[in-house]
Amino acid sequence: MTAVIEARGLAKAYGATRALDGVSFSVEAGRIVGLIGPNGAGKTTALKAILGLTPFRGELQVLGLDPRTQRDELMREVCFMADVAVLPRWLRVSQALEVVGGVHPRFDRARATEFLSKTDIRMQSRVRELSKGMVTQLHLALILAIDARLLVLDEPTLGLDLLYRRKFYDTLLNDYFDKERTILLTTHQVEEVENLFTVVIFINHGRVALSSSVEALGGRYQQLNVSAEAAPTARALQPFYERRRQDAGDTKHMNSHLADAAAGEGPREAAPAARIGTAGTLLMLVRRELWEHRALWIAPLVVAALMVCGAVVAGLKYHLTHGDMSGDDRPGGMAMFAVMQGAASTPLSVVSLIVVAFYLLDCLYAERKDRSILFWKSLPVSDDKTVLSKLLVALLVVPLGVFALGLLLSLLFTGIWEVNAAFGRVPPIPGWDMLGWLKAEIALLACLIVGVLWYAPYAAYLLLVSAWARRTPFLWATLPPVIAQIVEHFTFDTHYVRDLLVYRTYGIWPTLFGHMQVGRGRAFALGAALDRLNLGAALTDLNLWLGLAVAAAMVFGAIRLRRYRDDT
Question: N or C terminus: which one in the chain shows less Cβ crowding within 10 Å?
Fold first, then answer.
């Protein structure tokens, strides 16, 4: 029978500590394998190697794939579940189904919904509102709905009471396991699941002390109960656990009452795999970001609502103070219109810039902090797509959304003004040029595109800090440039770092616009600005492309850190 997992000489060290020291074992299909050992024995490290979550030395094949180089393909065939803490607390149940269904080609949403219908879990509930047992039920529903060949469970019932633990394993056997599927399980509650195992692998001090089928284990070892008086005589016979400890410093003997829990089960009929392309995956990941970081769209909407309210109040106050506008009042009225229309973009841009900066600092750091990264990495989504989706949100989705919102506000203010002008309350807009207004909006869109490209290094830097910092990413993002300027000033009495930051902030705009002011005001809306745009010079600026190259390098660093960083 073809091995599902084939490990030879696995080695992994954390500093001077050897987590895995030449581990070799083989797991065949249709087995329930117990990976047993004390704390710090190397069980979790072995699981991370199998899942491609940590680099290692040695040879490892999982379902015929190398976890180091073929992890994305592997995770289409593998499900992983750690303890209940890894589901994101902000996630709604319905969103969990949408996310998994949106990225996993083998997910059957109808099956997950059917399982959840037998529980007390509501679709609109958030994970933070559920009990530990309900979170486990939700996670199990997601797993059972995936047609996976290998299920890896790392302490899945940690912190649950006995009733929920029994329900979990009963459901696992009845609704998932068959002769074509393999389960690899680690747990400290061996006495509750020992009768489920068909194979036991005992690991200690990074080495495999015992690897045996349950049938062979039952014939080779017996439990001997010894009275206190006879203990010295029995110990003189060199019990197995003491003999192993003397020979290799390995393991304690474990009493097992093991049986094949799934004999006679037939394979479950597999649902056809859906085809999910790169664009579909990225779209789902972007939706996830907007669900998780709601300030990205709530903050601009709040600012827009406040601006509309402010414009209405200002207009009413002006009308109550001056009445219907006469010829003498028209300059003041037109000034108010220019302010209303010109102010549509500035507050939105400032607020969105602040929100995006904090989003970039938090997006990779937060998922490590709350351990939800283990859930996201259990899905067949590469780290580069995940990081790219976050960059797309910051540099494309939010800027375009804010631009569209500003455009809507500008049209709204113009419409309100025209309605009031029809009643003689305000002067009509003189010389309104729709073509000029359209050119102005195109010019602003061009500014947006150039700005996104120019400021990409800043976004990539914040993303890299988020992936690297163990705590307080805001501090780590601000300290290096500040310290660099201070050291340079007192050591060399120069200001190259400061000048570089200033240039990186403002340098592209003289190239694009010269000294012309940019805004949604009336003067700009006459359309002259588009003719003065030097878009070609801006897009061919060498410093812009050097900045993009630096940004690409930092994004690559963020991807590598997310791939191999282990703070869980």
Answer: N
Range of the domain at 238: 224-253
Q: Which residues pair with 10 in a beta bridge?
A: 23
Give the percent of the chain with pLDDT over 70.
Answer: 80
Q: Are residues 245 and 391 in the same domain?
A: no
Cα 82 to its chain centre, rounded Å, is 17
pLDDT higher for 529 or 288? 288
Burial per residue of 153-162, b for 16 or more beta-carbon CB atoms within 10 angstroms, e otherwise: bbbbbbebee
Structural domain contains residue 285: yes
pLDDT of 557 strictly over 90: yes
Sign of CA dihedral 469, 474, 475, 480: positive
Compute the distance between CA of residue 455 and CA of residue 544 in angstroms, rounded to an integer: 9
Q: Nearest-5° angle of CA 193, CA 198, CA 201?
A: 85
**Is 271 inside any structural domain?**
no
Cα separation, 170 vs 195, whole angstroms: 12
- Same-domain status, 411 and 489: yes
> In whole angstroms, what is the distance from residue 276 CA to residue 568 CA?
29
- 332-377 pLDDT per residue, tens: 555 555 555 556 678 888 999 999 999 999 999 998 888 888 899 9
**pLDDT above 90: residue 486:** yes
Q: Cα(290)–Cα(345) distance, rounded to whole angstroms?
A: 22
Tell me the average pLDDT of the chain: 82
The reply to whether 282 and 323 lie within a common domain is yes
Q: Return the higher-pLDDT residue of 280 and 244.
A: 280
Residues 33, 153 contacting (CB under 8 angstroms):
no
- Radius of gyration (Cα) for the chain, nearest Å? 31
| Phi, psi for 177 (deg, rounded to 5) | -70, 140
Please report the DSSP string for 99-123 in residue order.
HHHHH-TTB-HHHHHHHHTTSS--T
Q: Output the CA–CA distances (angstroms, integers) from residue 205 to 13, 19, 39, 201, 248, in the order listed.
A: 12, 7, 10, 13, 9
461 pairs with which residues across the strands? Answer: none
**Alpha-carbon distance 400 to 300, whole Å?**
12
A 10 A CB-CB count for 239 gives 15
Q: What is the pLDDT of residues 492-518, one digit of tens each?
A: 999 999 999 999 998 898 888 765 554
Distance CA 268, CA 179 (A): 9
Domains identified in the chain, total number? 3
**Residue 245: partners with Cβ closer than 8 Å, 6 or more residues away:** 251, 252
The DSSP symbol for 371 reads: S
Edge-first strand order for the sheet with 182-186 is 78-81, 150-154, 182-186, 32-36, 199-204, 207-213
Sign of CA dihedral 422, 428, 429, 431: positive
- Encoding tokens for residue 298? 């709530």
